């Protein structure tokens, strides 16, 4: 006999609500297109991509989006009516991402992004320190090739100060 698992979440065993289809709502393409044409140019609305009942007496109809820069997106118009004898009303129109749509990445809180940044900086510092330690074998020879005579900063007004004999220098006192 198996024992119940601690902290197990109960499984919802209630059957899903079956929403009856409303052929009038699902077939109201012209009304949906007219509502979409209020927010975008008619040429941006493509062919029908079907529809679904989302609640009793509420349907959403989908249409291809022809806007440049929105591949994989689709227009949606949600329609309703109170009962079979009531007129169809538009609830909302929107542009929704579909399969393959380019969307923003999932939001990451600032504290997590900052922690990732700090970890990356620490790793970069550790890598740099390791490279510096590995390259210290020749550290004693690093300045061996420096020769001040070849530096251009010794020239003042075109005179090489290292070449001037200060004992024979002319002074204003003479």
Automatic annotation (TrEMBL):
Residues 117-174 are annotated as: Disordered. InterPro entries: DUF3027 (IPR021391). Residues 125-174 have a biased composition (Acidic residues). It comes from the Bacteria. This is DUF3027 domain-containing protein. It comes from Leucobacter tardus.
């Amino acid at each position: 006999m198996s024992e119940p698992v601690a902290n197990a979440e109960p499984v919802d065993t209630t059957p899903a609500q079956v929403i009856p289809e409303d052929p009038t709502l699902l077939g109201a393409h012209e009304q949906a297109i007219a509502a979409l044409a209020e927010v975008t140019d008619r040429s941006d609305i493509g062919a029908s991509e079907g529809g679904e009942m989302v609640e009793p007496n509420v349907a959403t109809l989908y249409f291809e989006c022809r806007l440049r820069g929105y591949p994989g997106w689709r227009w949606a118009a949600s329609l309703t009516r109170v009962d079979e004898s009531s007129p169809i009303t538009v609830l909302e129109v929107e542009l929704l991402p579909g399969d393959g749509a380019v969307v923003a990445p999932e939001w990451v809180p600032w504290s997590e992004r900052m922690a990732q940044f700090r970890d990356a900086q620490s790793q970069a510092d550790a890598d740099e320190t390791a490279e510096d330690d590995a390259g210290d074998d020749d550290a004693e020879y690093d300045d061996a090739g420096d020769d001040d005579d070849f530096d251009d900063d010794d020239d003042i007004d075109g005179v090489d100060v290292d070449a001037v004999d200060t004992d024979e220098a002319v002074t204003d006192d003479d």
